[in-house]
Amino acid sequence: MSSNFRILGFLFERGGKLEIARGLQTVFAFAVPLMIGKLTSFPEIGSYVGLAAIFFVLGDVGGLYKTRALTTLATIVGCSVSLFISTFLGSILWLKVLITGLWLFGAGYATVYGHPGTMMGMITGLFFLFGIELPGGDWLVGLQRVLICLVGGGWGMFLCLVMWPLRPFQPLRSAVAGCYQAIAQYIQGCCADSIAELEGVVTLKQALQSARDALSVHRMGRMGGSPLGEILIVLIEDADRLITSVVSLRELVEVYRDSPQFLTVSILIDDAEAKIALVAQNLAQVILGKLTVVDLGSLELIAKAIAQQKQFQRQVIQDNTDDYATLMVVGRLVVILELVIKQLKSTIAIASDMDTVPRKHQPKGNVFLKNERDKLESKEMSWFEPLQDNFTLDSSLFLHGLRLGVTNAVAVTIYSLTNISQGFWVTLTILLVLQPDVGNTFQRFFHRIIGTILGVVFTVVLLAIISSEYILEGISILSIAIAYSLLRFHYGVAVFFISIFAMILSELKTPVGGGEIALMRIGCTLLGAGLAVVAVFFLFREREEKRLSAYLAALIDSTRSYFQTVMAVYLGEAEYEPLVIGKERQKNRLAYFNAQASFQRFSSDPQTKMSQIEPVLTLINYLNRFSRSVTVLMAQLEHFRGTAPVPELVRFVALVEGILAQFATSLTENTRLPSLRDLEVSEQQIQGIFHDFQAVRLEEFAANMDSTPTRQFLRDFSILGVEIEAINDQLAAIHSAVTRIIKCI
Questions:
Q1: Rounded CA gap, 724 and 630, in Å?
Q2: What is the CB-side half-sphere exposure of residue 54 using CA atoms within 13 A?
Q3: Coil, helix or strand for 60?
Q4: CB neighbourhood size of 316 (10 A)
Q5: Where is the Integral membrane bound transporter domain (predicted)?
């Protein structure tokens, strides 16, 4: 029963947000060419130009203006070529089927370029499918169609890029502000359940990655830098450091929250986090250029109160090693809060003066900015590399292109041999319903069918009541505007309004009666949607659980590498190099994001059982907790003084690395899982060593001995001792989750 409710919820859940601006663009895109066509006695040409324009409006990917412009230009060129080639395929069935398969394969394979490539491929494929349904012709007819496409494309591009004020930095500002909004949301959701916390972590990582991607795109093709762009780079890195500090606060508080000596401090830390969340929200508004006051007064008072608690605990400390361990943690919390306040003051100053672009806030010598530019430039790749890297049957995007090409070729064959009228609706449905994964295809299948049937029934009634051409045209324009506003909010509702638009347009162009159009529309939609579902289930299908296992193994490997890089500094095997560690952390974030995306596809697959979802969710959750512990240790390295580690710590680190490697192997090769007994023994021995050091330090403390080797050892390794216990518990949970995953996947 719960599985059925989950599927129903998935089918009817909404997607993104309403896009009123896109709806308004659509009104202008279609209505203006239509009116000009009527005034110049070329209504059909005006209608075609308007149709072309609304499809180019649909293809607008948003974001940075340069990305939008390049994507739209590439789409216009692709659509023009599609129409020209399709002009010569009208009467040769085998050639039409062959070219359709190849062309739609390319349209599907364009998803290797992300959302811009997906939209470009979809619109280009749509124009090709529409072109092969038009009567064939010679090169002159082809050029006429290309001209209509170019006019419609130019008009759509003008609407997309000029309707808003041209503020080149606004998309990048929005992406950077999103980092601070995500920080606030993460802090506010820290006390929620594990699923909500996991979603918060995903949002954090996505926000940072989106800002860095926006920065990379903004930098492409620029000679030199701009002061505002450089300041935005600093704000992104400030957000990253703030995330590290917030994670450190949360982790340290959770370990000692139940300790009686820690009760007041934990309450104060909760208040401090709430203030940090408020400051982050206000910072986001400032970055967006809105007048907002950002005040750190309350946060500074809380930091002073925690510092007073540290002094109080220092005065009343007893001959108890637990008391000393708590004191060390409180001291570390004070240091973290002081760093957060210091950083926020700098960030607020930079963000508040962004519009004046002051150079005084830039790092001396721009060393950091130079390193950041070097990293961005090194990330750029040629346009051909994504195509080359994914040109293999192991790529889900390559398989999606094959499915799309073969399925549309089959559809063209079917409606050509059976003389189905309006066959374009069959292939259009396949193009829009067939997605790279089963879950989204399954969802679109039902959205498309339900939305079409309801829209067709409503339009039949409408056509029976209203006969005025002008009223019907007005309703059709209003319908497509509403549809475009709702496309990302809820596809099924958008399809309802798209069906109204399409049926009214067909009836006005070729009046054949509402009932006949309705039957054709519903029949073609059912056929296309059915072919799409059959294709995603049976054609070149790779089980999502297989890909999920590979992504989970990659996440474990990247987590192990991150842990290994940080611990090498503690063990004296490597120098502290923030850029090297930061690179490993970024790899871990990307691996986490890929695993989370695969998990979403896996959980939305109708064939996935609830019993299969829980262990994967647990594994991802505890791998994230493990990475958070490593991040705490990474932050502590700023204060590490290079004290030699105890031998047992070297053994513990080696055991952790070996266990993580075996976890990854077990997921991909279904091998036997490692025992955690040796790890537990090692952790207990390390805690015993720390206990002995703390006992010695208490004696030194009573004798007012301040600068001693024992004190330095505990300063360097106390937080590590706290996290070792957490790491041991996390690995036990990961072991249990991997065991259950192997059994059920």
A1: 10
A2: 28
A3: coil
A4: 9
A5: 411-534
Domain of residue 329, residue span: 170-379
Q: At what angle do helices 93-109 and 65-86 cross, to 10 degrees?
A: 170
Distance CA 294, CA 281 (A): 9
Query: If 0-12 CB within 10 Å is exposed, 13-18 middle and 19+ buried, where does residue 245 land?
Result: buried
Do 602 and 668 sit in the same domain of this protein? yes
CB atoms within 10 A of CB 703: 9
Structure tokens at 123: 């619109």
| Cβ contact 91:137 at 8 Å | no
Tokens of 591: 């691996």
CA distance 69 to 57: 12
Whether 384 is in a domain gets the answer: no
Indicate the number of domains in the chain.
3
Quick one: pLDDT at residue 323? 64
Is residue 121 within 8 Å of residue 431, measured between CB atoms?
A: no
- For residues 169 and 229, the answer to whether their CB atoms sit within 8 Å is yes
How high is the pLDDT of residue 152? 94
User: Is residue 590 within 8 Å of residue 683, measured between CB atoms?
Assistant: no
Least confident of 226-230, 382-386, 685-689: 226-230
* DSSP character at residue 364: G
Closest by Cα among 121, 48, 132, 37 to 93: 132
> Do 555 and 621 touch, CB atoms closer than 8 A?
no
Q: Are residues 239 and 314 in the same domain?
A: yes
Phi/psi for 88 (5° steps) reads -100, 10
- The span from the CA of 614 to the CA of 740, in Å, is 9
Q: Which of 379, 408, 429 is the last residue of a domain?
A: 379
- Is pLDDT at 640 greater than 90 in this prediction? no
**What pLDDT score does 159 carry?**
86
pLDDT in the model for residue 222:
41
Please provide the DSSP assignment of 691-731 as one string: HHHHHHHHHHHHTT--S-HHHHHHHHHHHHHHHHHHHHHHH
Rg from Cα positions in the chain: 30
Name the residue among 27, 46, 123 with its Cα closest to residue 509: 46
The percentage of the chain sitting over the pLDDT mark of 70, rounded to a whole number, equals 83
CA distance readout (Å), 37 to 33, 40, 644: 6, 5, 82
Sequence-ordered alpha helix ranges (H) in 257-362: 263-287, 297-316, 321-352
With beta carbons less than 8 A apart as the criterion, state whether 109 and 121 touch.
Answer: yes
- Per-residue pLDDT, 505: 87
Would residue 385 count as lying in a domain? Answer: no
Please tell me the distance from the alpha carbon of residue 109 to that of residue 403, in angstroms, as a whole number: 10
Domain C-terminal end among 499, 515, 538: 538
